[in-house]
Amino acid sequence: MIATTWPLLLGMGVLMLGAGLQGTLLGVRATLEGFPTPVIGVIMSCYYVGYLLGTFAAPRLVRSVGHIRVFAALAAVASASILVQGSFVHAIPWAIMRLVSGVCFAGIYVVAESWINDRSSNETRGRLFSVYMLTQYAGLIGGQGLLNLFSPAGFESFSLVALLISVAVGPTLLTP
Q1: How confident is the model at residue 139 (pLDDT cuts 50, 70, 90)?
Q2: Dist. CA 36–CA 165, nearest whole Å
Q3: Comparing C-alpha atoms, which of 59, 50, 52 is closest to residue 115?
């Protein structure tokens, strides 16, 4: 079963590199920009508000257009949202885009996990989900390490997050 889900697992690993970098980058950059601590807290919390909303929207989307299209659409929007944050360094756009990112990532998780559940048998499901979770956590940890590549004060790290999220769509679109 890993043979039919490896593109999704690879895509999720790359996507998690971007997600890991994004979460760390935004907190560090907000501090560098002098945002007050409560404002940073609100901005970062908007992700989880979006995450909650995404869990309601994603299953309907998957039923109507399918796993691959939803994954691609949500990754495209997530990629664009981090570019907006890099372009407009202000608390309000950041909070809105953080909420949008939460919706997108929740939807991507719904897609990935329902896809794995659909593609696996009772005998292989546990193994697939363990590989999926290892891939996710390794990506998140690795993404935080990418913060050292560029100065968080510049646009390059925002571009790198968008690039990683965008590239993650490739292997997933190649899934039969």
Answers
A1: very high
A2: 29
A3: 59
Phi, psi torsion values for 70, nearest 5 degrees: -65, -45
Q: Is the pTM of this model over 0.85?
A: yes
Helices (H), the chain: 2-32, 37-65, 67-87, 91-119, 125-145, 156-167, 169-173
pLDDT tens for 98-117 read: 999 999 999 999 999 998 88
Q: Kindly report each contact of residues 156-161 with a partner whose C-beta sits within 8 Å and lies 24 or more positions away, as own/partner.
A: 157/21, 157/25, 157/29, 157/86, 158/25, 158/82, 158/83, 158/85, 158/86, 158/87, 159/83, 159/86, 160/18, 160/21, 161/18, 161/21, 161/22, 161/25, 161/79, 161/82
- Digit-coded pLDDT (tens) for 154-176: 999 999 999 999 999 998 887 76
| Dihedral sign, Cα of residue 117, residue 129, residue 161, residue 94 | positive
Q: How far apart are CA 102 and CA 74, in angstroms?
A: 10
The Cβ of residue 35 has, within 10 Å, a number of other Cβ atoms equal to 20
